[in-house]
Specification:
two-stranded antiparallel sheet, 6-stranded antiparallel beta sheet, Beta-Lactamase, about 290 residues, single chain, alpha+beta, Arc Repressor Mutant, subunit A, globular
Length: about 290
């Protein structure tokens, strides 16, 4: 069997190939991840907690659900689940199909998502930077928020290309996958044992061994960038960089993706530096963003 390419191990060399261009940002060794803390969150309101469970249950399902299914999945009494469902329906957060007597999240909830993105500052600060990288290098650019062991896609530009036909804003992705997963492993707070457990559950096109994945993580921690050359998605090259808080907490991951024949060789270095420059701008502006 052919040995899988350890794409991340060539990142530093690829960055150094440009003769007259220096890296736009250098990422020093992390001193430690910050712990912002949440303080006293107050007493939870039971009805709101239950409604949140219902919404999460409907969101996670690949099909509309009956009230009894929602109750069982959310761990609620059927009567409680039914009352919550009818209330959410009346408020426009979910839809109801009379023919099948089933519920699903309503498209109207996108209004809330748009409001969150608008007030977060990401559309004003991040999108112009993403467009600049996309236009200059002919790639699609994705911005994801780190949520523990997974990531949430916040925005993407470059509609001519997708790594995945189901790429949509608001979709959650498993952590240790592709170049972005290497960045999460390199700058996240988890240990190797946790990372290996998560890695074992993720599908790749040509999955590296965990030892090879850890080698990519170490290289990304040193260089501040990760490259995946066709092992996550066939024929696709991904380049990812971290967006860090002042306390070195990993907040966001910025990823560029393109066809392997377009993003190869001496193209990777300039693209990596462009992403790092954009990530540095976002890190400098992180106090203006609302990412909670």
């Amino acid at each position: 069997m052919d040995r899988l390419p350890r794409a991340g191990l060539t990142v530093c060399a690829l960055q150094a190939q440009s003769l007259e261009t220096k890296p736009t940002s250098a990422i020093p060794r992390r001193a430690g991840a910050g712990d912002p803390g949440r303080g006293n969150s107050g007493k939870p309101v039971g009805a709101v907690v239950a409604a949140a469970r219902v919404l999460r249950t409907l969101h996670a399902s690949e099909r509309p659900l009956h009230a009894s299914e929602v109750a069982r999945a959310a761990g609620l009494h059927r009567g409680t689940a039914y009352n919550i469902l009818r209330t959410l329906y009346a408020e426009g957060f979910i839809g109801y199909d009379e023919a099948t007597r089933s519920y699903a999240v309503s498209l109207h909830i996108l209004e809330l998502a748009h409001g969150v993105l608008r007030r977060s500052g990401l559309m004003d600060l991040a999108r112009p930077l993403m467009h600049a990288v996309s236009d200059a290098h002919g790639v699609s650019v994705y911005l994801s928020k780190v949520l523990g062991p997974s990531s949430l896609l916040l925005d993407w530009v470059g509609a001519a290309f997708r790594t995945d036909l189901s790429v949509t804003v608001g979709r959650q992705y498993p952590g240790p996958a592709g170049a972005s997963g290497v960045i999460m492993g390199a700058f996240g707070s988890g240990d190797d044992t946790e990372l290996e457990a998560l890695f074992s559950e993720v599908a790749w096109y040509r999955k590296p061994s965990f030892a090879d994945f850890l080698a990519r993580v170490r290289e990304a921690r040193h260089c501040g960038v990760a490259v995946d050359q066709g092992t996550m998605f066939q024929g696709i090259t991904q380049v990812s960089v971290p967006v860090l808080s002042p306390s070195w907490e990993l907040l966001l991951v910025l990823t560029a993706a393109g066809h392997a024949h377009d993003v190869a060789g001496d193209v990777v270095g300039p693209l990596s530096r462009a992403l790092q420059a954009a990530a540095a701008r976002l890190s400098e502006s992180v106090h203006l963003l609302r990412l909670g």
